[in-house]
TrEMBL record:
<dbReference type="GO" id="GO:0005814">
    <property type="term" value="C:centriole"/>
</dbReference>
<dbReference type="Pfam" id="PF00071">
    <property type="entry name" value="Ras"/>
</dbReference>
<keyword id="KW-0970">Cilium biogenesis/degradation</keyword>
<dbReference type="GO" id="GO:0030030">
    <property type="term" value="P:cell projection organization"/>
</dbReference>
<keyword id="KW-0342">GTP-binding</keyword>
<keyword id="KW-0206">Cytoskeleton</keyword>
<dbReference type="GO" id="GO:0005525">
    <property type="term" value="F:GTP binding"/>
</dbReference>
<dbReference type="GO" id="GO:0003925">
    <property type="term" value="F:G protein activity"/>
</dbReference>
<comment type="subunit">
    <text>Interacts with RILP. The GTP-bound form interacts with REP15.</text>
</comment>
<keyword id="KW-0472">Membrane</keyword>
<keyword id="KW-0653">Protein transport</keyword>
<keyword id="KW-0547">Nucleotide-binding</keyword>
<dbReference type="InterPro" id="IPR001806">
    <property type="entry name" value="Small_GTPase"/>
</dbReference>
<keyword id="KW-0378">Hydrolase</keyword>
<keyword id="KW-0333">Golgi apparatus</keyword>
<dbReference type="GO" id="GO:0005794">
    <property type="term" value="C:Golgi apparatus"/>
</dbReference>
<protein>
    <recommendedName>
        <fullName>Ras-related protein Rab-34</fullName>
        <ecNumber>3.6.5.2</ecNumber>
    </recommendedName>
</protein>
Length: 259
């Protein structure tokens, strides 16, 4: 893979992609954080343009993790089940607000016998995608355990969480409504952003990964700004301490400028 090849035109993000459900979103701002927009305009994003952010995808066997990644990265869908053995990964390059940004998508095995190998790849993730099957309530219940395992290897205070219901094409509207109600509750408990997708039809797949790329990028730039001391003392820059953040955890002081 050539890291220097131009970014595909359909991987260019000029605006913040929106959440699916406001009840379970990482934040509900319409635009990128003003500091991020400002830093990108001035090319003050530190190492973000050169960084590859790691995203891990976990969940029960056969919920559709591999199909989800393949639909987005290769625009393909295979109706035959081929279990992932250990892990697999795909690299996807974006341009966000004019800055190159790459996501490394780690597709892990859901089968118990491969879990041990897969879990050795959990460390250092900037985002965790927990997938369940919208037509299988047990797979939703198991997401809590998948999350707990993934968090053992990562910093819970900085990692972004996404709870994704798969195989939306297989549920009737009435079944979907019931499942979504439960899934939103789980997402809120986890402080995860909720999505529902179909890799067969492609519904919401692109929107979802664009959101992952945008929020991971935004968190990275904010962390860089914080690290580089480009903030004023007492002006805490944290993605999870924003006014519009539903999962508010810390007290905050509103930024008054983009520095
Ligand atoms: N109808 C439908 N079938 C799907 C969808 N996504 C995946 N599948 C099917 O579900 C089965 C399992 O999909 P995979 O993507 O291999 O599942 P996985 O989560 O990667 O499984 P492991 O690698 O064992 O953990 C395959 O037969 C897919 O064709 C979807 O959106 N709709
Ligand atoms: Mg797989």
């Amino acid at each position: 893979m050539n890291l220097l090849a131009p970014v595909r035109r359909d991987r260019v993000l000029a605006e913040l992609p929106q959440h699916l459900r406001k009840e379970a979103a990482l934040h509900v701002r319409r635009d990128f954080h003003p500091r991020v927009t400002c830093a990108c305009q001035e090319h003050r994003t530190g190492t973000v343009g050169f960084k590859i952010s790691k995203v891990i995808v976990v969940g029960d066997l056969s919920v559709g993790k591999t199909c989800l990644i393949n639909r987005f990265c290769k625009d393909t869908f295979d109706k035959n089940y081929k279990a992932t053995i250990g892990v697999d990964f795909e690299m996807e390059r974006f341009e966000v607000l004019g800055i190159p940004f790459s996501l490394q998508l780690w597709d892990t095995a859901g089968q118990e016998r491969f879990k041990c190998i897969a879990s050795t790849y959990y460390r250092g993730a900037q985002a965790i995608i927990i997938v369940f099957n919208l037509n299988d309530v047990a797979s939703l219940e198991h997401t809590k355990q998948w999350l707990a395992d993934a968090l053992k290897e990562n910093d819970p205070s900085s990692v972004l969480l996404f709870l994704v219901g798969s195989k939306k094409d297989l549920s009737t509207p009435a079944q979907y409504v019931l499942m979504e109600r439960d899934a939103l509750k789980v997402a809120q408990e986890m402080k995860a952003e909720y999505w529902a997708v179909s890799s067969l039809t492609g519904e919401n797949v692109r929107e979802f990964f664009f959101r992952v790329a945008a929020l991971t990028f935004e968190a990275n730039v904010l962390a860089e700004l914080e690290k580089s001391g480009a903030r004023r003392i007492g002006d805490v820059v944290r993605i999870n301490s924003d006014d519009n953040n539903l999962y508010l955890t810390a007290s905050k002081k509103k930024p008054t400028c983009c520095l």
